[in-house]
């Protein structure tokens, strides 16, 4: 298990993650990323081929909230959790990895420590099997507006 993150109460990591390559870590099964800023989070995720469980809260890029979350290179996934904290989440989550039937759960959550909770998150989930993915989506907290399709570029 690898945990990377900032503090939920005080904001993201002070230092941006740059060039984190996990391709040599063949036994990594769980990757938790909380309130952390990456130069290229998708490159890091794509390099983590062995990962089975990914939990990402408030994904950030150097220009702000991450708009596109790419898990298409992660064919061993059994569980994915994406939480939008304080901000909107990715507008596209790509889990089209050729192995969607291995997924047991896709968790989506909008969470904010402050009230009222503002829910502006709309996401398109790109999947190999939209019907199956729709059946395994679980919502914690406030539900984002989402659609599941084979192609989010529509």
Backbone structural class:
mainly beta
Q: Return the average pLDDT rounded to an integer.
A: 86
The ordered string of helix (H) and strand (E) elements is EEEHEEEEEEEEHEE
Number of strands: 13
* Basic shape: globular
How far apart the termini lie comes to 36 Å
Q: Segments where pLDDT lies below 50 for 5+ residues?
A: none
Instruction: Tell me the helix content.
Output: under 10%
Oligomerization category of the chains in this entry: single chain
Number of helices in the DSSP assignment: 2
Give the spatial strand order of the biggest sheet. 1-2-4-8-10-12
How much of the residues is beta strand, in percent? 35-45%
Radius of gyration (Å): 15 Å
Fold topology:
Blueprint: E1 2-5, E2 30-34, E3 37-38, H1 41-47, E4 53-57, E5 60-61, E6 64-65, E7 68-70, E8 79-85, E9 92-94, E10 105-111, E11 122-126, H2 130-136, E12 137-141, E13 145-149
Parallel strand pairs: 1-2, 2-4, 3-5, 4-8, 7-9, 8-10, 9-11, 10-12, 11-13
Antiparallel strand pairs: 5-6
Structure description:
It is a single chain. The chain is built from two helices and 13 strands, in the order E-E-E-H-E-E-E-E-E-E-E-E-H-E-E. It has helices at 41-47, 130-136; strands spanning 2-5, 30-34, 37-38, 53-57, 60-61, 64-65, 68-70, 79-85, 92-94, 105-111, 122-126, 137-141, 145-149. The protein has a six-stranded parallel β-sheet.
Q: Which descriptors would you attach to this protein?
A:
six-stranded parallel beta sheet, mainly beta, 2 helices, four-stranded parallel beta sheet, 154 residues, single chain
């Amino acid at each position: 298990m690898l945990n990377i993150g900032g503090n939920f109460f005080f904001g993201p990591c002070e230092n941006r993650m740059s060039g984190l390559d996990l391709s040599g870590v063949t036994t990594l099964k769980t990757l938790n990323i909380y309130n952390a800023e990456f130069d290229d989070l998708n490159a890091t995720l794509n390099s983590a081929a062995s990962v089975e469980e990914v939990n990402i809260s408030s994904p950030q890029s150097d220009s702000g909230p991450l708009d596109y979350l790419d898990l298409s290179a992660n064919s061993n996934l059994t569980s994915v959790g994406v939480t939008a904290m304080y901000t909107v989440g990715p507008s596209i989550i790509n889990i089209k990895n050729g192995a969607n039937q291995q997924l047991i759960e896709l968790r989506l959550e909008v969470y904010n420590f402050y009230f009222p909770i503002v829910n502006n998150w709309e996401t398109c989930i790109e999947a190999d099997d939209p019907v199956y993915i729709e059946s395994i989506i679980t919502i914690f907290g406030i539900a984002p507006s989402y659609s599941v399709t084979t192609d989010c570029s529509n």
